[in-house]
Amino acid sequence: MIHIHTASLLDPTPLLEGVGPWALIVVMAIVFIETGLLFPFLPGDTLVFTAALLAGPLGLPLPLLVVGTAAAAILGDQTGYHIGRRFGPRLFKPDARIFKTKYRDQADEFFTRYGGRALVLARFVPLVRTFVPPIVGMSKMPFRSFLLWNGIGGIAWALILTLAGYFLGGIPFVKDNIEVIAVLIVIVSVLPIAIDILRRRRKA
Questions:
Q1: What does the alpha-carbon distance between residue 190 and residue 198 come to, in Å, rounded to a whole number?
Q2: pTM of the predicted model as reported, rounded to 2 decimal places
């Protein structure tokens, strides 16, 4: 039987060591919940990275971890997409304080312009990846396009984090600064989009 304390979610190492052979199930469940159930305060990145780092002691084959993580990430985003598609239109009203119709239209314009790039990059940004799928579900992006880019983003995210944890996690500097490195990668990745947005605002 698995016993998981809420506080242990903040430190993936004792969590993973504690669940032992159930580690893959726990990783997949948390990755899915983060986007599928719209619960952003979970250690998705560090959890997957740490699971790859401890793959040997946990007896967890790396290919299995990659496939399981990617599947959970993709299914989570798919669930979030359908939540947005089904319930989103009811939330947005022209005179609403938070869920204004214009915000939905702006998001729709953003994804229409940047398409899959924005969707793939969002997968690497904590908090953001939780809310992007339902927003896309409310937009006019075709489901087939979302399915394609969601798959690319989920697989890329799983591969990068697991391979980084497996091959680089043993280096003290990388292990101690993984969050900082992840932030730098995200900044470099989204920089072209940010520059384009600033140029468009200046022209406007």
A1: 13
A2: 0.76
